[in-house]
Amino acid sequence: MGRYAARRLLQMIPIFIGTTLLIFLMVHILPGDPVRAIYGDKAPDPAQIAAIKREYGFDKPVLEQYVHYMLNLLQGDFGKNLAGRPVIDLMSDAFPVTLRLTLLAITIEIIIGVGLGAWAGLRAGKAADTGVLIFTLTVISIPVFVLGFIARFIFADELGWLPPNVQDSTSFSQLFLPAFVLAMLSMAYVARLTRTTFAENLRADYMRTALAKGLPRRRIIGVHLLRNSLIPVVTFVGTDVGGFIGGAVITEGIFNIQGVGNLLYRAVQTSEGSTVTGVVTVLVLVILLINLLIDLLYAVLDPRIRYA
Amino acid sequence: MPDVTKAQTTDEALLDAVAPPAVEVPAGQDEKKSDKPRSLWGDAWYDLRHRPMFWVSSVLLFLLIVIAAFPGLFTSVDPRDGDLVNHYLSKPELTHFFQPDWFGYDQQGRSIYARVVHGTRASILVGVGVTAVVTLVGALLGMLAGYFGGWVDSVISRLTDIFFGIPFLLGTMVVLNAFTERKVYVVILALAFLGWTSIARVTRSSVITAKQADYVTAARALGAGTSRILFRHVMPNAIAPTIVVATIALGGYISAEATLSFLGLGLSDPTISWGIDISEGSKVIRDNPHTLLFPAGMLSLTVFAFIMLGDAVRDALDPKLR
Amino acid sequence: MRGARSAKWVAGAIVVALAATACGGGDDTGSDDMNKGKADPNGIVTAQLSEPQNPLQPANAKESQGSRVLRTIFAGLVDYEPGTGELEYVNAESVTPNDDSSEWTVKLKAGWKFHDGTPVTAQSYVDSWNWSANIKNNQTNSSWFADIVGYEDVHPEKGDPKTDKMSGLKVVDETTFTVKLTQPVSYFAYKLGYDVWAPLPEAFFKDPEKYGENPIGNGPYKFVSWEHNKLIKVRKFDGYKGPNKAKNGGIDFKNYTTADAAYSDLRSNNVDWIEQVPTTALTNYKTDLGDRAIDQEYSAVQSIVPAFYTKTFKDIDPKVIQGLSMAIDRETITKTVLQGTRTPADSYVAPGVLGYKKGALGDIVKFDAAQAKKLIQEGGGVPGNKIQIQYNADQDHKPWVDAVCNSIRKSTGVDCVGDPKPTFQADLDARDNDEVKSMYRGGWVLDYPVNSNFMRDLYGTTAAGNTSGYSNKEFDELSSEADKASSIDETVKLYQEAEQLLAKDMPAIPLWFYKVNSGQSTNILGKIPYGQDGDPIFDQVQVKQK
């Protein structure tokens, strides 16, 4: 297992370099001059702009900038944004917020998703199953931003149960609504996935064996069925982290949350290359590590899988 | 786009974890329904015809395509024509079917009904366009990687990993930010830029399964050329999972376009897009929810129809799930 | 009506405000009377702010958020009287020109001190200006010093600076220095009200970076702390000698990222002042707030500008542009789509600025579809019969651009569509590189309250703010004559003549003047006074005794 993990880690290196290079190129090929934009409608000063660009190294070829960036990165230096604030500071402000939001969302996603899915799966083909199917299809069909506006309109503005904006990102009650909106879509997928695997595994041999052994129904479902059905769900939740970050751009925007999504959205809009590259680099790293973790988790959940 | 990535990742997960590729089930095994052996496709069609979901979504989609192709049949009002003096944010008249004031007017005094009708084309074009590009590119790369293996596979697979590594919505935002004028084809290409990876992965794995089949070995033994084996034997038997993923993702792309338009990075003027209208409507939702609800409802209905179709197709092509 | 829902979060807060007058109506109750009660000289005012984008240091404060804080910490040489735009001395005893306004003598009031106890001297100003102008220090406002002799030496167009001192600045004694200009500028003293001309203490030059996080000024408030993305605190400086001593104990600038969040806090009295009512609440805020609502014009104008290098507007008959201007129903659009946040423009110059003349542009800005059509026909029509209005989609411009286009389309038959650029950068790029397709959105907020700022800096042939390719010799001559005029009154008058020249040529179609739509909490005594720049005069705000 250790060797397997080491090999996987080594394989991650080219992917990591490729991904960061790709995002670096994408950001730097963008039109629009972030330095010029500081001046807005007012008169720009070409000489000053050139001097600022020299300071940031924007006058060098892109590949040279990339190598330079990566070398600094290895020493833990993410560079500065155009206002002179270290990108690492911006990220250490934003990441904990998004982490809280995402964890809350994943919890909601798993509890409701697995619950609904299991319920439908145990009653495959019955009315409950169809009901869950239609519900999940509907949720999947409504884009997150529409869902966000509607949820806020109903729960915050009309009913007044929850605050419409997040001022304090450590407050559970303020984060609940955005986390719920963020979780909805994945929750629908988790429900469908759970339903399918449940229905499938119900027909599996080991279930028949367990029944024959006379195990109580609760134990069969709670231990045997659940454990075996959770593998694809875990995979899904893991691969879904990227999707969560995408969703966070929307939810954080609608609910005024100062997280990674908001930081990235603003950075993309203002062509803040160093911030975009920094954040995406960290995200890619996180996603790669989570995928590795999930593969290792397999072995724990499924005794049939052994890594040499 | 969350929708898309999720549609894709789920499906991969579903296909990987739950059901082996449909091709593993040779044609004609369905003994109880017919005495004549049917091909996979015939079997799927038989199955589809008996699904109400398939028919509901087909009728919906047919209607949407007619609206997209001939918006003039449904309204004669110019969707850009606003009358601020008389129609500023007028409320909907829900009984005035197919009239300009059916869905009310927006903050420019324009008929929301006319805008919803005329916005259909862009959404459908983007959805179908992205799916076409993604399927072509993804399937081709996946097939090459799966069939040839070796270094071809290594190169393509790493490339796929790299493009897959960048969060879909964020990457697409960066790409679209580079274009000052975003017509339909620009949005299609931007969404396809990071969107092809799932199709490539799914196709690769089903091609690997298919090429080990006996009939491929047989064909090779009989001296068939590479391209003949690839296109006559492997592809038809490996394409089913690809089609399933593509169909389901289609709805996701439409939703992705709307989300990007909402962020100000999707289609741009003068294209009429539901996403832009939803974004404008969200600013006055407090007293005028109709400005948001009608375009949002139409958008969701369209995505719903495509996802339902994808679902039906998957169930039909994937006998194990029945 | 609880809280509000944000629509879109806009990249940068843009909003500023000016002089406040009560707007009637509302459900004001006796106990809530904002004018009753006693002022608490140590009361703390809480105000909305977004995170400043740059270190807190005067020459780099380009955006409104950093400026808002800096203006409380620093006192400049001069300031402007709200409403009239007349000059007032603050740190300066006097600022006097020589005969042709090419050399100015600044006398400081004696005995002033920075918050760290060091004296404010002529040297503090000269050092500050030299440092800020130096190209090596990368100050975005450096070009403000371009009028001073020796600017090219510290700020060459290419290469390193030859020296770090501008030869035009001379310290005469402890409290006197002279400024030599490359050409006469009769209103130079007016420019001195802007943030960049602030003095800097010695502590700054030792470690500018550290200073930016912990600024030391000479103003009515001293800086206390800056918790990023949360709170900036400033407190009354007891040793302040200026005329504008703080009438409250200090200000807490609370960080908000959306107008919606700030607005809900204002309504629950958690913040005393917000910069702008969110779009989503504009229709209701006057009933929400009663006479605590603030609704007032400020000195900024929005216009659409023809790019004269395009096929459409090359060799155009100005009559056509006049026609387009008359095809825009400014009244209706400001009332509906813009929800009363602007008032129709009647001049190139915004109100509250020296030389603003009501109705200066006469009928050209009045909506008259028939006359518009006629003028366009007489002028030979719009080539291609189509115009596009370029704007940046990252701010809330789309609604009014759509409305303007619709108005033009309907009343003249000229096709008109918006041409959105995704970001402000892309928008500016297209303007700088002469890639605008036919027209673009223009906006101008005053730098200093003289009408020249709204004309020479935008429509002069060589003006940096002129990106439309407009050039009119007559106007250029008149404006340089005006700049050399013996008195500011004369300058203003000549510029008013120049405005009539522009009206004939139409280098831009003025649309509307900006307004502040804001509010104050019940903790505040009286109406919050606003300055010329559209921000509150925080030192004059009074807090009710509890």
Summarize the structure.
Chain C: One of its GO terms (molecular function) is peptide transmembrane transporter activity. Chain A is an all-alpha fold and 308 residues long.
Can you put this structure into words, describing what you see?
With 308 residues, chain A is mainly α. Chain A has helices spanning 2-29, 34-37, 46-56, 62-74, 87-122, 127-141, 144-158, 172-202, 205-213, 217-239, 241-255, 260-269, 273-301. Chain B is an all-alpha fold and 322 residues long. Helices cover 68% and strands 0% of the residues of chain B. Chain B contains 13 helices and no strands. Chain C is of the alpha+beta class. Chains in contact: A-B, A-C, B-C. Chains A and B meet through α1, α6, α7, α8 and α10 of A and α1, α6, α7, α11 and α13 of B.
List the helices and strands and how they pair.
The complex is a heterotrimer of chains A (308), B (322) and C (546).
Chain A lengths: L1 H28 L4 H4 L8 H11 L5 H13 L12 H36 L4 H15 L2 H15 L13 H31 L2 H9 L3 H23 L1 H15 L4 H10 L3 H29 L7
Helix pairs in contact in A: 1-13, 5-6, 5-8, 5-13, 6-8, 7-8, 7-11, 8-10, 8-11, 9-10, 10-13, 11-12, 12-13
Chain B lengths: L1 H17 L21 H10 L2 H18 L14 H4 L24 H37 L1 H16 L2 H10 L6 H12 L1 H15 L2 H8 L4 H37 L11 H8 L8 H28 L5
Chain C lengths: L43 E6 L14 H10 L4 E3 L6 E3 L2 E6 L5 E6 L13 H12 L17 H4 L14 E5 L2 E5 L7 H4 L10 H5 L1 H6 L7 E7 L3 E6 L13 E6 L3 H9 L5 E2 L10 H5 L3 E14 L11 H9 L3 H6 L6 E3 L24 H10 L7 E7 L5 H15 L2 E7 L2 H9 L6 E7 L6 H8 L13 H12 L3 H18 L3 E12 L3 E2 L16 E2 L3
Parallel strand pairs in C: 1-10, 14-15, 14-16
Antiparallel strand pairs in C: 2-3, 4-5, 5-7, 6-7, 8-9, 9-10, 11-17, 12-16, 12-17, 13-17, 18-19
Q: Stretches of chain A where pLDDT falls below 50 for ≥5 residues?
A: none
Give me the CATH fold name of chain B. Answer: MetI-like fold
Number of domains of chain B: 1
What is the strand content of chain B?
under 5%
Quickly give the structural class of chain A: mainly alpha
State the share of residues found in helices of chain A, binned by percent: over 70%
Can you count the beta strands of chain B? 0
Cα-to-Cα separation, first versus last residue of chain A: 6 Å
Order of helices and strands of chain B: HHHHHHHHHHHHH
Low-confidence stretches of chain B: 1-34
The largest pleated sheet of chain A is described as: none
Task: State the end-to-end distance of chain B.
Answer: 30 Å
Query: How would you sum up the global shape of chain A?
Result: globular
Which of globular, elongated, flat, extended, rod-shaped describes the shape of chain B? elongated
Rg of chain A, nearest Å: 24 Å
Number of strands of chain A: 0
Give the largest chain-chain interface (CB within 8 Å).
Answer: A-B, 60 and 54 residues
Fourth CATH level, the homologous superfamily of chain B: MetI-like
Mean pLDDT of chain A: 82
Reading off the top of the CATH hierarchy, the class of chain B is best stated as Mainly Alpha
Give the helix tally of chain A. Answer: 13
